[in-house]
Specification:
six-stranded parallel sheet; 18 strands; globular; 360 residues; 26% helix; alpha/beta
Length: 360
């Protein structure tokens, strides 16, 4: 038996419970978690903004050590430090054949599986976004496991599994920020802080961080922001003032709210790029008129998992960490136990802090 944070039903409080994990079968790996990040997507799953089968063990940003492997697994072995990849590509669907592995049609098929059972009554449990990282141990498909590059602290490495891949990919893959460009980042949580660091790595000059909380300015500037704007109805105007009345070359929205997406769009210069990373609900409707689409000539694009290929991008990120360009530890503003996850959810709703990290 191992302890896990179980979501019994959509909208219900998480319950800390003992669960029964099976031995890994063919093509599976059992992992002892060292750490798991608490991501806004976990909150969205718990409140029904995004749907997964329940009861479930959530958590998709994690790192740990291999305990055992099933038949046919050769790329990792017991004792190896690893990162969890919650969206493994199948390699055969249309998106994968185009090289767009972040859009794999089959990436989340594993979320419907029964991967464990509740210790108290034997009821079925699903693995959230494939990997069920809110637990002391988990059993996952081998495709969800990436070897951890050398020189990366195991607990901090958990952040590579979602926040950092997403923020880095938004800058380098989706928006393709070039040296000397100007960038605005909306939302200074774990993903936003990763995006700010990535904009600095890309060589952006003016880097504007935007958030509703004045208290996050120090975090934002430490991550690379040259300017900080407290969100208001005048945000777009303030950003244009900071950029010679032009607007930024690139705006990255990490919140998932209609008003924020619209403001990010209005903060982007004519011909610039607006990238939406935040996951919003179906009720968040964003509207544009036909004339402004023509006149401004901006590009508006969604960004899934940073448009990243984890197998290729994690080694690149590791090199940035080793060289001191990317600071994983600075993204973490709270280190908690399993029973601290509900409080971390409350802080996200209130707009407090960066990334909370569950330490096992």
């Amino acid at each position: 038996m191992v302890r896990a944070a179980v979501l019994p039903a959509v909208g219900a409080p998480l319950e800390i419970a003992e669960i029964d994990l099976p031995d890994p079968g063919p093509g599976q790996v059992r992992i002892r978690l060292a750490a798991a990040g608490v991501c806004h997507s976990d909150l969205s799953l718990s409140n029904g903004t995004m749907r997964v089968p329940v009861p479930a063990v959530l958590g998709h940003e994690g790192a740990g050590t291999v305990v055992s492997v099933g038949e046919g697994v050769t790329h990792v072995a017991p004792g190896d430090p690893v990162i969890l990849n919650w969206a493994p590509s199948c390699g055969t669907c249309h998106a994968c054949t185009l090289g767009e592995v972040w859009l794999c049609a089959n990436a989340l098929n594993g979320a419907a599986d029964v991967y464990a059972h509740r210790g108290s009554d034997g009821s079925d449990l699903h693995p959230g976004l494939n990997v069920a990282a809110f637990a002391e141990e988990t059993v996952v498909a081998a495709s969800c496991v990436l070897p951890l590059p050398e020189g990366i602290p195991l607990t901090d490495a958990a952040l590579l599994g979602c926040a950092v891949l997403t923020g880095y990919g938004a800058i380098h893959h989706s928006a393709q920020v070039r040296e000397g460009e100007t960038v605005a980042v909306f939302g200074v949580g774990g993903v936003g802080l990763s995006t700010l660091q990535s904009a600095r790595i890309a060589g952006a000059t003016t880097i504007v961080a935007v958030d509703v909380s004045p208290e996050k300015e120090e975090l934002a500037r430490a991550a690379g922001a040259t300017d900080y704007v407290v969100a208001s109805e005048n945000t777009a105007r303030e950003i244009r003032t900071l950029t010679g009345k032009q607007g930024v070359d690139v705006a990255v929205e990490c919140v998932g709210r209609a008003v924020t997406i619209r403001t990010a769009w209005e903060s982007t210069r004519r011909g610039g790029r607006t990238t939406v990373v935040g996951i919003g609900g179906k009720d968040q409707q964003v509207t544009f008129n036909a004339l402004e689409l023509f006149h401004w000539g901006r590009t508006l694009s969604g960004c899934v998992y940073g448009n990243s290929d984890p197998a290729k991008d994690v080694p690149v990120l590791a090199e940035h960490v080793r060289a001191g360009r990317l600071d994983l530890g600075s993204l973490v503003t709270e280190r908690i136990a399993l029973d601290g996850i509900p409080g971390a959810f409350e802080n996200m709703v209130a707009g407090k802090g960066g990334r909370a990290l569950v330490i096992f």
